[in-house]
Amino acid sequence: MSRHGSVLILGVLVVAVFAALVVVSESESQAPRAPAGHRTIGWGQIAWNFAGPERWAMRFRREHRKVVALKRELREQRRVVLADPQVAEAINLAATVYGNAPTLWRKARCETGGTFSPHAFNGSSSASGLFQFLPSTWRSTPFGVFSVWSPYANALAAGWMHASGRGGEWSCR
């Protein structure tokens, strides 16, 4: 084989290798890419975006504590409301007639200290009932002729006060 033949074969081989590299690089550029995060593997631990199992476990425990607290609060509220169904019915009736359901529930919870007792009494201010009406305020409502201890009259009077623009007379907002 002559020198020209060897150079020609070597040139063909170089072109073939170059063509193969071009084809491989084009096929890799069209291949699906890995997700945007950074993955580290070592000593039995996998981290994704620099957050390992400890961080994910800590996040789970934090969120789980929130869920447990919300469930506890729901059980407590359910227990209180189911203990005296007339109170729930009275507040819902006032909310249906006058509106402001979340406000009425929030004020009843605040004014009774979370007990929703229609027989709540404040000795220092003589405020009475589910929404803690002062005697003078109670008499100024259309429901002042009824007993302040009636959950229905008390809730309807509170709803009427809110509808009349007198919702700011309570210490609980």
Radius of gyration: 37 Å
Domain module tally: 2
Biggest β-sheet: count, sense, barrel?
Answer: 2 strands, antiparallel
Strand count: 4
The percent range for strand residues is 5-15%
Mean pLDDT: 80
Number of DSSP helical runs: 6
**What's the arrangement of strands in the largest beta sheet?**
1-2
Specify the structural class: mainly alpha
Helix content: 55-70%
Query: N- to C-terminal separation?
Result: 103 Å
Order of helices and strands: HEEHHHEEHH
Shape: rod-shaped
Task: Write a concise keyword list for the protein shown above.
single chain; 173 residues; mainly alpha; two-stranded antiparallel sheet; 6 helices
Task: Give an account of the 3D structure.
The protein has a two-stranded antiparallel ribbon with strand order 1-2. Strands 3-4 form a two-stranded antiparallel sheet. It is mainly α and 173 residues long. The mean pLDDT is 80. It folds into 2 domains: 46 residues; 86 residues, no CATH class. The chain starts with a helix and ends in a 10-residue tail after the last helix. Helices cover 59% and strands 7% of the residues.
